[in-house]
Amino acid sequence: DAKTTQPPSMDCAEGRAANLPCNHSTISGNEYVYWYRQIHSQGPQYIIHGLKNNETNEMASLIITEDRKSSTLILPHATLRDTAVYYCIVSNDYKLSFGAGTTVTVRA
Amino acid sequence: GAVVSQHPSWVICKSGTSVKIECRSLDFQATTMFWYRQFPKQSLMLMATSNEGSKATYEQGVEKDKFLINHASLTLSTLTVTSAHPEDSSFYICSASGSDHMFVQYFGPGTRLTVL
After folding, report:
1. Contact at 8 Å (CB) between B71 and B52?
2. pLDDT tens digits along B3-34
């Protein structure tokens, strides 16, 4: 049973911010939100994770709602190389359960 | 930092032969390593979890005698597909996590296995 819900696909323009939503309404108090992405025919790449507070690193920002039932991954300036499948995963241990993710296509 | 390598990147073998795939954490000690399998147009499916020096824990439906996992050191895990058959053809991906990585997994580039 999926713990997260993501739109199957989305397009965004090169150079613009890409906002990827994720619903996790049944998240428990000790579960983190993780984001990974997988570029075609490669292994997944870790992007960012958070528990309650918003997080930012060199790749992206993660905005988690106050009730923690949803989050948004923000890629501030999308490039063509950001075209990938993005996975939002909630977990409180080492196990990551990959769903279908969101296929993001960045267009020039 | 947090680089994981896999070797080989692709392999073609005959049905009935065994294939070994290596996974190495290059710049950190991996207390836990994971093996996933991904069929075309599908998502990653966890096959097994291994901790250094102990037996791997296999997910339901994964044959432990067919997919042998060894995690002999903090930087190396191997997956051996024994008596491979065409239905074992898939993309095999390993990942590793260290004690100071807060459950974050770092993935290898994957190995494409084709069994003829």
Report:
1. yes
2. 999 999 999 999 999 999 999 999 999 989 99
